TrEMBL record:
WD repeat spans: 795-834, 841-882
Keyword Transcription appears in the UniProt entry: no
Protein's UniProt keywords contain Thylakoid: no
Protein name, entry field: Beige/beach-related
Ranges in coiled-coil conformation: none
Keywords, ordered alphabetically: Repeat, WD repeat
Domain BEACH intervals: 373-661
UniProt organism field: Anaeramoeba ignava
All copies of domain BEACH-type PH, residue ranges: 261-364
Length: 1012
């Protein structure tokens, strides 16, 4: 910006403010005045220069300046120029470089040369005229006036000639500089692409641990004139000499405005804004046959920021759209929300309902091959409630779906999902989750839990009902969910930290009002007359929001205590254990049997009307959706301001009392197999299903929900001879029967893997009944049907033996000895099966031993022979990070198995040779969904098989010494150990956690009743 203003001053300067003042010559009375016409000519020249370089949109630039204390300061005025060819942000970065500085110097020198040449030419002319006058002295007096006239004319001719030549040279110089700039831009773009591929932890020549670190906030204290000021600034990634940093930043992230001005193939184009938590980003929303675009508004109140230029365009391919739903903004049905395959979503709000409907219909009419129809909708979600009643859907998932159906979204803080306070005990050192006294009363709204406060609330309501009030009576003036409440809880996370900082005028809220303790927050909602806030979903799955990982300085409280991380209850060791116990409490029997009462208050028949009054659950009238039909702009603005500050009531989903969750009574064990009590307090049924060791057990179920059905259709067993058998299995009736499809069992798999480590080489897709196997000497992987055990196909894509496979309904992953990992799409599950390679990963140095995938969390985890574990995006293959494995090195360590839990946690099973004592240790390492190390369990003897309970609370391990051990994953301690009749070769846990199925070396299948 300074460079542009500098050129403007050069070309517009007057004789008083000329860039270079000419030296005063005693014998020269010639002055070069830059009159108004010359100024206009210079302006035209400048415009030609700008048009040659800049982009095809309007730009407000700084063009006025004033002189103050010999320092030039500039004021902004709006001069709109139509510009061409190259994006503005790219050029402005270039204009900061040496090229531009050199160009300015050339203009300066050219102006100086012009002045010098004119002076020299005029002086030469004067010398010649004086010589002539000496020869023709008689006529000097007579021709004095004529000589002066010739002198002036000659001066003007010289000046015009030199200026014309200068302008011509300047134009040529501009073209030459333009070519250099364009060339530099193209080079910078290529550098940026190369940088993206090389500047990450898996760059082969980078120092992994020193390149990247967490961004950090610091508080810098300045003392000026005895006044203390605190400035908040952020420290970014620390790059070392081994990483490539392009010389020009922020280049070509989005294409220019040609799509905006070119109407071809545009199916829909209307103004709207993207709702980004609390901000509205205006722009233009376009739908084309192959993509959708959003052009961000940059012509109004546009500020030029060279360090962080604004993005001007976003675009998405239509095949990346996963879901579309119609939404409301401030109670008006003017918005749509689009969810993409990469798990990102955007909230678009349009000026009117008709425009929003048109956008929705245009999107639905496209050929969206990956669009998923909603299984539940407002008109039919009885099936969802039934599944919840039958324990097929968890409390957490059911409430998330109800929030979704009620129009709640993570993109708008005023409509953030709402969750209840569950527990009431945050002070004791331990907590018994079976004791109802430790739980909050879910049948009452949060404002009615304290009887003293409730008495005041009811009195105020009655007073407002009897008097001539300006608005209807209410129990509570504030709401249990609002943008301020969401920001209050999430202040330690970006971008909410910055939003809170800006909301309070470049500072944080008063320290005594910042969220600092869970127990204090609970006491506040019990006693504070205006505090009735409930919780947000992060309290049940995201421990990082309770930590101050950015080291933000929130100040000190009145008591002198410094605010940093949230103070947790005494019964939790850290944020991870708090989230784990809190989620465990949410899924407890007590909450499950009372949860329907809270649903009635928030989403049901007690939300409004007489029932709400009786339940002390009436809020300020502007918080309800009934005000969506507004007659004036003034009323609309009033509603908008109220919603922004105090939130809005969710959409009412139920008008009748919500049904309670069913209590499933345990059925007695009835079986064709005689139960045999081998151990104390453990019921074991055993069945001889093979003459050889059982190497693998796989339970297949038909439910697709996060909490599968507790009865299973099939149990598949594979013995050491790779014979596969199908069995019927039902927990409640305890029926067990082998299905005989052929006279002899089907031979399956290869002899490549040792007994006990077959888990990563077999996986079944439930809905498609496919079984994938690998380990064949011909480098192939093969597909069979689990229904009729038929062969569907063999595929050879790797250059060495395929060592591991993991899959879902639509995608599967293979790892190989050739150190590569390949991700495949399943195009058709019928014979002949059709697959297609999506991408290949080549980051491992050693052979890949195991892979694990989770489509819900978009995670792919790979482990290698050299002890490395890498995490990727399953959809795109983008590298996330590598796990920091404790006490492992690539020469002595092996990653034997990896697993992703249903909560996104990662389990790594590894072996490590201890050279000092010539023995091998086996370790289970546990990590959060964000790759943070949580704990580990080590063994000095081999592990033959293991499994984790569905609730992620217990680890069951089969050992080589005919023992079974169970560990509590909250403290990583052994809670139970018992012997079995033969060495365990495979183990799996039913999803309700009540039974262990153990395959033994002697071919026996054991059923152990154990509540894990």
């Amino acid at each position: 910006m300074y460079c542009i203003a500098f050129v403007l001053e050069i070309l517009f300067s007057s004789k008083e403010n000329a860039i270079e003042k000419r030296e005063n010559h005693e014998n020269t009375d010639i002055e070069i005045d830059l009159d108004q016409q010359e100024k206009q000519a210079k302006l035209v020249c400048l415009l030609e220069f700008i048009r040659t370089i800049f982009d095809t949109h309007y730009l407000t630039i700084s063009s006025m300046f004033k002189q103050e204390e010999n320092k030039k300061k500039f004021k902004i005025q709006k001069y709109k120029f139509q510009l061409l060819k190259i994006p503005i942000n790219q050029i402005l970065d270039v204009l900061q470089g040496d090229e531009w500085s050199g160009f300015v110097s050339e203009i300066f020198e050219a102006k100086k040369v012009l002045d010098t040449k004119i002076k020299v030419s005029v002086m030469q002319f004067e010398d010649a005229m004086l010589m002539e006058m000496r020869i023709q002295s008689p006529i000097i007096s007579q021709e004095k006036d004529e000589i002066a006239t010739h002198k002036t004319r000659f001066k003007e001719e010289i000046k015009k000639t030199i200026e014309f030549q200068m302008k011509k040279n300047l134009e040529q110089n501009i073209l030459r500089k333009k070519k250099r700039i364009v060339s530099q831009l193209k080079s910078a773009i290529q550098w940026k692409k190369l940088s993206r591929k090389l500047n990450h932890q898996q760059a082969h020549w980078s120092k992994l641990k020193s390149v990247f670190r967490d961004s950090d906030f610091r508080s810098q204290t300045k003392k000026e004139e005895k006044n203390e000021e605190k400035d908040l600034f952020q420290l970014y990634l620390d790059f070392n000499d081994f990483t490539i940093i392009p010389s020009i930043d922020n280049l070509n992230r989005f294409s220019d405005f040609r799509d905006l001005v070119n109407p071809k193939n545009i199916l829909f184009s209307e103004p709207c804004f993207i709702r980004d938590f609390m901000k509205n980003i205006p722009g233009v929303f376009q739908i084309k046959s192959e993509k959708i675009c959003f052009f961000i508004e940059t012509t109004k109140n546009w500020e030029l920021d060279l360090k962080n230029p604004k993005k001007i365009k976003k675009q998405w391919g239509i095949n990346s759209i996963a879901k579309i739903r119609q939404m409301k903004f401030n109670f008006q049905p003017t918005a749509i929300e689009i969810l993409f395959l990469n798990r990102k979503s955007y909230f678009f709000n349009f000026p009117t309902k008709e425009i929003a409907n048109s956008a929705f219909e245009n999107l639905k009419n496209l050929n969206l091959i990956n669009l998923t129809e909603e299984e539940w909708n407002l008109g039919n979600f009885q099936q969802l409630t039934t599944k919840w009643q039958n324990f097929e859907v968890s409390n957490f998932e059911y409430l998330m779906r109800l929030n979704y159906l009620a129009g709640r979204t993570f993109n708008d803080l005023s409509q953030y999902p709402v969750f209840p306070w569950i527990l009431s005990n945050y002070e004791s050192k331990s907590i018994n989750l079976s004791d109802p006294k430790n739980y909050r009363d879910l049948s009452k709204p949060i404002g009615a839990l304290n009887s003293d406060r409730l008495e005041k609330v009811v009195k105020r309501f009655n007073d407002m009902s009897t008097k001539d009030a300006l608005f209807p009576p209410f129990h509570y003036g504030s709401l249990y969910s609002s943008s301020g409440i969401a920001l209050y809880y999430l202040v330690r996370l970006e971008p909410f930290t910055k939003m809170s900082y800006e909301l309070h005028n470049q500072t944080f809220d008063h320290p005594d009002r910042i969220f600092f303790s869970i127990n204090s927050a609970w006491k506040s909602v019990l006693t504070n007359f205006s505090d009735i806030r409930e919780l947000i979903p992060e309290f049940f799955y995201f421990p990082e929001f309770l930590e101050n990982r950015e080291k933000i300085d929130f100040g000190k409280q009145f008591t002198g205590d410094t605010i940093s991380e949230v103070i947790l209850p005494l019964w939790s060791r850290n944020s991870d254990t708090f989230i784990q116990k809190h989620m465990q409490a949410f899924e407890s029997e007590h909450v499950s049997s009372n949860f329907h009462n809270w649903i009635d208050l928030i989403f049901g028949y007690k939300q409004r009307g007489k029932q709400a009054k009786n339940a002390h659950n009436v809020f300020f009238h502007l918080s309800y959706e009934k005000n969506n039909d507004l007659s004036s702009q003034e009323e609309k603005e009033t509603i908008n301001k109220h919603v922004e500050n105090f939130g809005q009531i969710p959409r009412q989903l139920f008008t009748d009392p919500h049904p309670a969750k069913k209590i499933i009574k345990e059925s007695p064990l009835i079986s064709k197999i005689s139960p045999k009590n081998i151990l104390d307090n453990i019921v074991i049924c055993q069945l001889q299903i093979s003459e050889h060791p059982i190497s693998h057990l796989l339970l297949l179920h038909t439910s697709k929900d996060s909490v599968p059905d507790t009865s299973f259709d099939k149990l598949i067993s594979i013995d050491s001879r790779k014979h596969l058998r199908n069995h019927k299995w039902n927990i409640h009736k305890f029926d067990f029967e082998t299905i005989s499809l052929q006279k002899s069992p089907k031979k399956f798999g290869s002899e490549f893997f040792e007994l006990g480590f077959f888990h990563s080489s077999l996986y079944s897709v439930n809905s498609n009944s496919l079984i994938f196997s690998c380990g064949y000497s011909d480098f192939s992987f093969r597909v069979h049907s689990s229904e009729f055990l038929g062969f569907l196909g063999a595929f050879i894509k790797h250059k060495d033996i395929v060592t591991c496979i993991a899959c879902t309904d639509t995608i599967f992953v293979t790892g190989s000895r050739d150190t590569t990992v390949v991700v495949w799409d399943i195009l058709s599950s019928k014979k002949p099966i059709q697959i297609q390679q999506r991408y290949q990963l080549t980051d491992h140095k050693y052979e890949v031993n195991c892979v694990a995938i989770n489509q819900e969390y978009d995670m792919l985890v790979t482990g290698s022979e050299g002890g490395s574990v890498l995490i990727y995006s399953l959809n795109s293959g983008r590298f996330f990070c590598s796990l920091d494995l404790k006490n492992l090195n690539e020469k002595t360590s092996k990653i034997l198995q990896v697993r992703i839990n249903n909560n996104g946690g990662i389990i790594v099973f590894s072996s490590n040779i201890i050279s000092s004592i010539f023995s091998t240790s086996y370790t289970f390492s546990f990590y959060s969904i964000n790759a943070r190390f949580l704990g580990s369990i080590s063994f000095g003897y081999p592990i033959t098989s293991w499994d984790v309970s569905f609730n992620n609370l217990y680890l069951v391990v089969g050992c080589e010494n005919e023992k079974m051990e169970i560990f509590d994953l909250q403290n990583y301690k052994r809670v139970k150990s018992f012997k079995i009749t033969s060495r365990c070769s495979s183990v799996c846990i039913t999803n309700d956690g009540k039974y262990l199925l153990v395959g033994c070396e002697n071919g026996m299948l054991l059923f152990i009743q154990s509540d894990v």
